[in-house]
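Morning run. Coffee first, then this:
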Amino acid sequence: MSFTHDQTVCSECGAVIDTTRDTPTARAPCPTCGGLRRTICDTVAETCVARAGIGIKVKRPGERRPHIEDSAMPSHSHGRGKVVHREQIIDRDNDRYFERVTDYETGEVIHHTDEPLSQHKGHGTEKARVAPPEKTKE
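And here it is:
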């Protein structure tokens, strides 16, 4: 965010006022009309970036899992501590898994995978789960 003080003008006549003559207890009168009321003109600027994404799942009637999942959307990168662009295609009919993660700011490809879906193991819900420690009674 940036802040700038543009100018101070007389509220009576609109003349630009030099406020360096003002003190904390008294204002110097307007040199044009003698008024003491002021209008302070400041600018505050903020930049906002909005990012959108899309995701689809294609299912056939009677099938539990979609045969195609496709998404391209912003995703938070914990390692980089910022939002990155993530594209993912899961095509079960053609045995294809595609994923590309790109840094929005630099365009750098952070991660790229394009392989048969049947070889894409040990990721997501297929990660080995660690059993919680057993509780002991005291």
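The chain has a mean pLDDT of 89. Good start to the day.
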